[in-house]
């Protein structure tokens, strides 16, 4: 099968590097375009980036010239000079300006930034949890005009959290939850938090993080309501109270979260663990990046731990442990998720894989007849 050409906007950053690592031998996608800021444009990628990952930078990527962030013309898209599928990993203020412009030009933009996550016509998706929310794509003007669209993946803490919550919401319903995060320094990008602020320390504040986590859980676990006559739809937010404390801790990769939860229907320990272990909603699709078990429950009394459990499911699984009764709510447990793999680049790639399976990559000039309602 010919691989689809993809590009990365913000390719030199922490998340951009993860995209390169995870897409290096991807069976469905091939990187043909890399872009970043004016600081990097025009340089070979190997010179422009400060490679921080534990696998070597692929030689053919190191040689690629970083492109400027300029929105592509119809000719550049038609000729394949700029690919139609763009993974975006730029900061929110830049994303606000560039991502809609790329979608309007005719690109499928799959974004990591927070800029449009809560926009009513933009799907915020974790494929195992709410791929039906892609129905919102049909409300985007660019989609109707030229096939371009914008989808987002959630905040790095929200992804691990909703993977653990979705099976509980489906089986028992969630009334309220209280979550305290311990977030890795790679979540702040590079160079991120100064070493003198974080070594031997905990910083109990990450700007806007608690608000993002609370509201994104509501959208992710909300229900997509299709409007058949208009061919559109909207999301009914989850009717549950969510309260978050977010902290930065001196861990390199892996966000740990302590959760207390109140359910609508009582559940036993065995029922909770079975709900997590039986959760395999993508199994039939055989997506290259989907872990067989998106939620792994570990019975050991001292797990999960970032150093020991971060690579489960190739960094795409959420590890849950320490389920025990909570004297304030019903149950409490601990979860761990890889913030730059499952929490960022891997999440966007999984979104692209499910979008490919759903037939959503259809663009003007390529297959005009299949544009709308593809
Ligand atoms: P980062 O390491 O600071 O990287 C930022 C990237 O954006 C770099 O490639 C940078 O290029 C590029 N950039 C800056 N200004 C630009 C411009 N005007 N036009 C085009 N590109 C520009 O940040 P990061 O950690 O990778 O995060 C990227 C995005 O992903 C953010 O929105 C962040 O919130 C989100 N996110 C991060 C994580 C995580 O765990 N790190 C998780 C989930 C979501 P230069 O090198 O040329 O400056």
UniProtKB/TrEMBL annotation:
Q: Which UniProt keywords apply?
A: Amino-acid biosynthesis, Diaminopimelate biosynthesis, Lysine biosynthesis, Methionine biosynthesis, NADP, Oxidoreductase, Threonine biosynthesis
Q: Pathway involvement?
A: Amino-acid biosynthesis; L-methionine biosynthesis via de novo pathway; L-homoserine from L-aspartate: step 2/3; Amino-acid biosynthesis; L-threonine biosynthesis; L-threonine from L-aspartate: step 2/5
> Active-site positions, per UniProt?
156 (acyl-thioester intermediate), 255 (proton acceptor)
> Has UniProt tagged this entry with the keyword Disulfide bond?
no
- Give GO MF terms, alphabetically: aspartate-semialdehyde dehydrogenase activity; NAD binding; NADP binding; protein dimerization activity
Q: What class of enzyme is it?
A: oxidoreductase
From what superkingdom does this record's organism come? Bacteria
Q: What is the official name of this protein in its record?
A: aspartate-semialdehyde dehydrogenase
Gene name, per UniProt, is asd
